Amino acid sequence: MAKERHPFRHHARVLAAALVGTAVEFYDFYVYATAAALVFGPLFFPAESASAQLLLSLMSFGLAFVARPVGAVAFGHFGDRLGRKSTLFVSLMLMGVSTLLIAFLPTYQMIGGLAPLLLCILRFGQGFGLGGEWGGAALLAVENAPKGWEARFGAAPQLGAPLGFLAANGLFLVLGIFLSNKDFIAWGWRIPFLLSAVLVGLGLWVRYRIGETPAFSEALERQALHSLPFGRLLKHHWPAVLAGSAAVVACFAIFYLSTAFALGHMTTARGGDRETMLAIELVANIFLGVGIVLAAIWSDQANSRNVLITGSLGTILLGAMFGPMLAFGTLAAVLVMLSFALLVMGFTYGPLGAWLPTLFPVPLRYTGVSLAFNVGGIVGGGLVPIAAQWLSGNGETLLVGLFLSAAGVITLFGVVLGRLGGKGEHVVARPVG
Q1: What predicted TM-score, i.e. pTM, was given to this entire model?
Q2: CATH code of the domain covering residue 358
Q3: How far apart are CA 35 and CA 43, in angstroms?
């Protein structure tokens, strides 16, 4: 009798495709977030004040969150009509090309108002591609998961987030150490965008070698697929879309306030050293990975809903300390606070890969998961950092944490609504062996 293989060994190629592809996508996304916090303000926007330039830069960053739901509908349509594999391949390519072209953009001093326009167009392309990425990667992992391993498999795309962040911020840290500030601003910031081409090539190669998910293949055999998944989703499953969108707000709010906003605030408003803050962010990022793993294991032992509820309550608590720590805390205190914030984020982010697919039937799942994830991203990742920067620019940094507490309440509402209004199917579990 053949020896039974461990689930992770048996599905190593699928997990690698979910993890590596998402890590590449989030590397591209975080490269922009870091550059937006550090250099894009003075390079691409007219000079009014440092705070105004940072706000405009973060607004360009937030543009991708408008593009993401559009990408979710477009890629979701093809993911539910043609399959997960080919759709994921195209989404990664679009994200990579958009990121690479940013490396070649002329600045505001070179071409005036055309510079921020081109930057925003490419930023929209990044968001459009990412709109179809996370949902497809999560389904790729979860729909191949053996019974009892759904949350741990579903956490593979989430683990791509800290890996992508580590690569992006780590590279900026190395460049900051070895380049003068003048060289970094003049050309050094372009290097991470150029290197994305190598990482995208790796991600495309991994994804080319995988097959279609069993759940989608079985759905294709059992029933005719819907000609317009988006329309049917909004007509028959809008409570699930609302619940899923609300449930992801907290993880987005925590991440972008703890990274892009905190980095920009500490280096601009408080005059902190750029390399020191990048190092602090890197250390705190480790706790995001730890939180994701712990949340996934707990979700498989109990259930994803309870873990998300715990994460939402932790987010409400985090909001009470976030503003004061960022406004007056020492660097050591800021490190502890950001580490705790990203640990809490792990409990709002880690279970989503397993929880969101249960809200939607298989033929509508790619569209439903992608749309819910990215609509919630508009609020948590797009609007919250902009509102926080506006509040901070008006001398009210102490109140910034209220956005996190509000995000925790919204996520709690979404999880409860998901239990009451979800009309999906349980994810098909695959046997091991």
Answers
A1: 0.81
A2: 1.20.1250.20
A3: 10
